[in-house]
Design goal:
Keywords: Repeat, Repressor, WD repeat. It comes from Carya illinoinensis (Pecan). InterPro entries: Topless_fam (IPR027728), WD40/YVTN_repeat-like_dom_sf (IPR015943), WD40_repeat_dom_sf (IPR036322), WD40_rpt (IPR001680). With 784 residues, the chain is mainly β. Strands 4-3-2-1-29 form a five-stranded mixed β-sheet, with no helix packed on it. Strands 30-55-54-53-52 form a five-stranded mixed β-sheet, with no helix packed on it. Strands 5-6-7-8 form a four-stranded antiparallel β-sheet, with no helix packed on it. The longest helix is centred in the middle third of the chain and has 11 residues, at 323-333. The N and C termini lie far apart (78 Å).
C-alpha cells in the first residue's frame, strides 16, 4: 500500500508500547502517525507556528520570507504519551498522545537560532525533560511539562548535529556530536563538557547503545564521503571494533544506522540495507528492498526488533518484517483499530537477520540527506556527579524552635550502623570514598592496599546502593590480586596516602609514598605507574574538564600539573612552604584551590595557572596547631563557597576573594578534628573527632545539630583506642556517611528510618545565630 504525500521522510520512530504505530516527519514539515495493521494514517499535523506574536524577530522575518520548515527529528517520549518534533526553523513542538486518532498541541518552544538539528527525551532527577541542539552550536534542556529552560550547554565550535541523553547507574549525562566531528559529554550542572573526543574520520556522527545498554556504537560520514560504523570501549574512550562494508563514495548523505535485540546492527548505505552481527566485523548480509532505496536510506527498528521501517526513493516508507512481525501485522490488519489499546510486548527470540522479508507495507514519503541520531555515548572521564538527592525535610514550627536541643546519639538503637566485613589484615584506613554510582566503597589502608566493598541488588536492596541495612561483599577479581601501591624505601609511617577516582568508577589513581599508580577497578590490574619520588605525591585531583590532566600535590610543597596521555608535566606551581594536603577545582570559576600543611590556602587560575591569591588560616585564640597539619578543601555544590577543614576548626571561605565567611571551633573535650566533608547536597557537614564522635553541622550556618558519640557505633570495650581518621559522604543519600577507623574498620552510619535525618537545625534570631559561647562547641555557635 502506497500513500504518497510528495515530500521526503526526514525522521521515523516506532511507539515504545504500541509497536505497530509509526511516527513520520517529512521535509515539508508534516508529522504523520500511521497504524501499520490497518495501513491507515490516523493523525496528521502540518507545520504551523502556534503563537507567532511571541516569536523572535528573527523567526518572524524568516517565516515572512518562507513559511515552510522541514522536520529534522520526531521522537516518542519513553512512555509514548508525548511526541517531540524538531524543525529547521527555531521551533520545537510537543504533542500529547493518549490513544484515539489525535495529536494534541502541548508546548511550543523557540529553542534555537536557526535549525533545531535534534531532540531527545531524558529524565534528570526523575523529571521528564527535552534535550535539543541546533545550528547555533548550543545544547539546551527544557522541562517537558512547563517548557522552562533548565540548562544551556555551550562549547562546540560547529553546529551541533545530534544529542543523546543516557545514564549509567545514577549518573545522568548527555552526549553531543557536531558537524566538525567533535564529541562532547555534559552533566546536568552547567559546568561545561567533561569529554572531548574526535569521531572516527571527523564525521558527522550518531551514537546508539545496544538495547540492554551494555554496548556502545556509532555511525557517521565525513565530508570526503568516508563512513565509519564502530563499537566503542567505554572505559577507555577508544574504538574497540570497526565494522567492514561501508566503502568510500560520493557524498550522498550521512549513513544512518540502528541496533536491535542486543545482537544486530543495520545501516542504510549504497541503496542497500546492510546487517552485521555485533560480535563480527565482517558484513553479514544485505537487502536491496526491490531496488527502491535511496543512496542513504533512513531506517528504524521497532522495540522488539521484528519490524524495520525503511525510507524509499519514491517518497515512500517500506516496512520489512521477520516472521514474528508478519504474524503481528496479520493479527491486527483485519480488526478495527483501537489506538487506546496497549499492545502487549511479546517475548520473541532474536531473529536471524536473513529472515527480514520483502516489503509488507509501503507508506509514501522518502529520506533526505540527514536523519537523526539514535542514542548516546558514555564518558570514561566525566568529572562530576549527577546526584539524585532526596529532599531535606525542614521543620521550622515556632513551638519546636522554643524547645530545641542538640540531638545526641549515644546508643546503637538510636541509629543504623554497619561495620563492613573484612578478611584482610586490619590496618588503619588512610583514605575513604564512595564510588560515584553509590554502589561501592573504596578504602586505602596505610599498608598501601586498597579494599573495595560492593553491594548487590536483591529483594532487600532494590537499588544495589550502599546501605547499613545490607552487608556488602569485600570484592576481589577472579585473579585474586590486590590493588597495591608502589611503596618507597622510606618509612611507611612517613608516607602520605592519596587517591582520586574517575567519575565513571572505572579507574583509581593512587599513591602511598612511592610512584603514582593507575588501577583498573574491574580487574585491579595496574595500568601504569609514573612520577617516582622524591618528591612523593601527597594529594591527587582530576581536572574537571579533562581527566587526562591531573593536579598532583607534592611533598616538597609544589603542585605539578601533569598530562597522563603524553606523560608530561605541563607546569609546576609554587606558593606553599610545606607539603600539599588538599586540592579542589571549581569549574564555574576556572580556579584551583590548594591547601598545605602550612595552614595556607592558595588560589590558582586554571587558564594560565597564575597564582591569584593566598591566605593563612585564622587559628582560634587559645588553640595551638601542630607544625604539620592536614588542611583539606572541598567546594560546595555552588562551586563558589569553599569548605576548609583543619584540626582546630571548620571554616567557609568565599572564592575567589578567599574571605573567611564563617568559622566553627569544636569544644576542646572532643579533641582535634580528624576529617570533615560536605553531604552530597552540600546542606550538611560531617565532622569526625579524635574522641571517636561525629558532629553534623548545618552547612549554611555552621551550627551543630547532632552529635553521634562512639558508643553508638563502636563495641563497648574496644581493644585499642579507636577513632575515625576519615569520613566520606554517600553521593546520593544526604544522610548517609562512612567512617574509616584507626583499627582498620569501615563503618556506614545512617539515621533511623523513622527519623530520616540527623536532628533539626537550631533556631536563629533575626536570621543570624548568637555569638560564640566559649567552652562548648557542641553548642554549635559559629564565629563570624
Amino acid at each position: 500500500m502506497t500513500l504518497n504525500q510528495g515530500s521526503a521522510v526526514k525522521s521515523m520512530d516506532f511507539h515504545p508500547v504500541q509497536q505497530i504505530l509509526l511516527l513520520v516527519g517529512t521535509s515539508m514539515g508534516d508529522v504523520m502517525l500511521w497504524e501499520l495493521g490497518s495501513r491507515e494514517r490516523i493523525a496528521l499535523r502540518n507545520f504551523k507556528v502556534w503563537d507567532l506574536g511571541v516569536c523572535s524577530i528573527a523567526l518572524q522575518a524568516s517565516l515572512t520570507n518562507d513559511y515552510t520548515a522541514s522536520v529534522n527529528r520526531v521522537m516518542w517520549s519513553p512512555d509514548g504519551t508525548l511526541v517531540g518534533v524538531a524543525y529547521t526553523k527555531h521551533i520545537v513542538h510537543l504533542y500529547s498522545y493518549h490513544g484515539g486518532d489525535g495529536l494534541r498541541n502541548r508546548l511550543e518552544i523557540e529553542a534555537h537560532v536557526g535549525s533545531v538539528n535534534d531532540l531527545a527525551f531524558s529524565y534528570p532527577n526523575k523529571q521528564l525533560c527535552v534535550v535539543t541542539c541546533g545550528e547555533d552550536r548550543v545544547i539546551k534542556v527544557w522541562d517537558a511539562v512547563t517548557g522552562t529552560k533548565q540548562y544551556t550547554f555551550e562549547g562546540h565550535e560547529a553546529p551541533v548535529y545530534s544529542v543523546c541523553p543516557h545514564h549509567k547507574e545514577n549518573i545522568q549525562f548527555i552526549f553531543s556530536t557536531a558537524t566538525d566531528g567533535k564529541i562532547k559529554a555534559w552533566l546536568y550542572d552547567n559546568m561545561g563538557s567533561r569529554v572531548d573526543y574526535d569521531a572516527p574520520g571527523h564525521s558527522s556522527t550518531t551514537m546508539a547503545y545496544s538495547a540492554d545498554g551494555t554496548r556502545l556504537f556509532s555511525c557517521g560520514t565525513n565530508k570526503e564521503g568516508e563512513s565509519f560504523l564502530v563499537e566503542w570501549n567505554e572505559s577507555e574512550g577508544a574504538v574497540r571494533r570497526t565494522y567492514h562494508g561501508l566503502p568510500r563514495r560520493a557524498h550522498t548523505g550521512v549513513v544512518q544506522f540502528d541496533t536491535t535485540k542486543n545482537r544486530w546492527l543495520a545501516a542504510g548505505d549504497e541503496n542497500l540495507i546492510k546487517f552485521w552481527d555485533m560480535d563480527r566485523e565482517r558484513l553479514l548480509v544485505t537487502t536491496e528492498v526491490e531496488g527502491s532505496l535511496p543512496a542513504s536510506p533512513c531506517i528504524r527498528f521497532n522495540k522488539e526488533g521484528i519490524l524495520l521501517a525503511v525510507s524509499t526513493n519514491d517518497n515512500g516508507v517500506k516496512i520489512l518484517a521477520n516472521p514474528d512481525g508478519i504474524r503481528q501485522l496479520k493479527t491486527v490488519e483485519n480488526r478495527t483499530f483501537d489506538a487506546s489499546r496497549v499492545v502487549s510486548a511479546a517475548i520473541v527470540k532474536a531473529p536471524a537477520v536473513g529472515t527480514f522479508g520483502s516489503a509488507v507495507v509501503t507508506i509514501g514519503t522518502s529520506i533526505g540527506d540527514r536523519a537523526p541520531p539514535v542514542a548516546a555515548m558514555v564518558a570514561m572521564n566525566s568529572d562530576s556527579r549527577s546526584v539524585d538527592i532526596k529532599p531535606r525535610i525542614a521543620d521550622d514550627s515556632v513551638d519546636k524552635s522554643r524547645i530545641w536541643k542538640l540531638t545526641e546519639i549515644n546508643e546503637p538503637s538510636q541509629c543504623c550502623s554497619l561495620r563492613l566485613p573484612d578478611s584482610l589484615p586490619p590496618v588503619r584506613v588512610s583514605r575513604l570514598i564512595y564510588t560515584n554510582s553509590g554502589l561501592a566503597i573504596l578504602a586505602l589502608a596505610s599498608n598501601a592496599v586498597h579494599k573495595l566493598w560492593k553491594w548487590q541488588r536483591n529483594d532487600r536492596n532494590l537499588t544495589g546502593k550502599a546501605t547499613a541495612s545490607v552487608v556488602p561483599q569485600l570484592w576481589q577479581p577472579p585473579s585474586g590480586i590486590l590493588m597495591t601501591n608502589d611503596v618507597s624505601e622510606t618509612n611507611p609511617d612517613d608516607a602520605v596516602p592519596c587517591f582520586a577516582l574517575s567519575k565513571n568508577d572505572s579507574y583509581v589513581m593512587s599513591a602511598s609514598g612511592g610512584k603514582i599508580s593507575l588501577f583498573n577497578m574491574m580487574t585491579f590490574k595496574t595500568m601504569t605507574t609514573f612520577m617516582p619520588p622524591p618528591p612523593a605525591a601527597t594529594f591527587l585531583a582530576f581536572h574537571p574538564q579533562d581527566n587526562n590532566i591531573i593536579a598532583i600535590g607534592m611533598e616538597d610543597s609544589s603542585i605539578q600539573i601533569y598530562n597522563v596521555r603524553v606523560d608530561e608535566v605541563k607546569t609546576k606551581l609554587k606558593g606553599h612552604q610545606k607539603r600539599i594536603t588538599g586540592l579542589a577545582f571549581s569549574h564555574t570559576l576556572n580556579v584551583l584551590v590548594s591547601s598545605g600543611a602550612d595552614s595556607q590556602l592558595c588560589l590558582w587560575s586554571t587558564d594560565g595557572w597564575e597564582k591569584q591569591a593566598s591566605k593563612f588560616l585564622q587559628i582560634p585564640s587559645g588553640r595551638a596547631a601542630a607544625p604539620l597539619v592536614d588542611t583539606r578543601v572541598q567546594f560546595h555544590l555552588d562551586q563558589i563557597h569553599l569548605l576548609v577543614v583543619h584540626e582546630t576548626q571548620i571554616a567557609i571561605y568565599d572564592v575567589p576573594k578567599l574571605d573567611c565567611l564563617k568559622q566553627w571551633v569544636p569544644r576542646e573535650a572532643s579533641g582535634p578534628i580528624t576529617h570533615a566533608t560536605y553531604s552530597c547536597d552540600s546542606q550538611s557537614i560531617y565532622v569526625s573527632f579524635e574522641d571517636g564522635s561525629v558532629g553534623v553541622l548545618t552547612a549554611s550556618t555552621l551550627r551543630l545539630r547532632c552529635r553521634i558519640n562512639p558508643t553508638a557505633y563502636l563495641p563497648p570495650k574496644p581493644s585499642m583506642r579507636v577513632h575515625p581518621l576519615v569520613v566520606a559522604a554517600h553521593p546520593s543519600e544526604p544522610n548517609q556517611f562512612a567512617l574509616g577507623l584507626a583499627d582498620g574498620g569501615v563503618h556506614i552510619i545512617e539515621p533511623l528510618e523513622s527519623e530520616g535525618k540527623w536532628g533539626t537545625s537550631p533556631p536563629t534570631e533575626n536570621g543570624a545565630g548568637p555569638s560564640t559561647t566559649s567552652g562548648t562547641v557542641g553548642s554549635d555557635q559559629p564565629q563570624r
